[in-house]
What does this fold into?
Amino acid sequence: MKAWLYYRLSRDEDAEMNSLQNQRQILVDYAEQHGYEISGESFDDNVSGMTFERKGLHQIELAVEDGKVDVLLVKDLSRLGRHRTRTALFIDYLRENNVRVYSVTEGIDSSNENDDMIIGFKQLVNDFYAKDIGKKVRTGIRQKQKTGMTVNLPMGYYKDRNTGEVLVDETAG
It folds into this structure.
């Protein structure tokens, strides 16, 4: 069976635990232990799971069209996506092309009808997590702004790393 490995890291994750290398090794080990032939792999680094405009996903689509994939291995379903609707549509696209999605650490298989409810539940949780993090970040930024802290400087300014002072960037003009 031809397996494609996909792994993703977003900005807000523990770099140590979810590193791309760590995720990749988990997938390689699983493929080897189960006798899968690794036909290819793709990844996305520093990309939110809420967007589906990702280079790594596009590479999967090309591999599917070329008949290079029987199973897509992911560390967990959140690596594939955190947007519940878009993730469901992507899994449906893969099913229509006779490609299973298998979540290695969760033991969830898109070809198993009994896992459909679990997949839907995981998608709800992953979607909620992403939206919750976004809300917390926005709240933190607003709180910093209320205290007068400059969070995002306008173009033409920079913050001195030593003093914390906001200065005009003469080279930007």
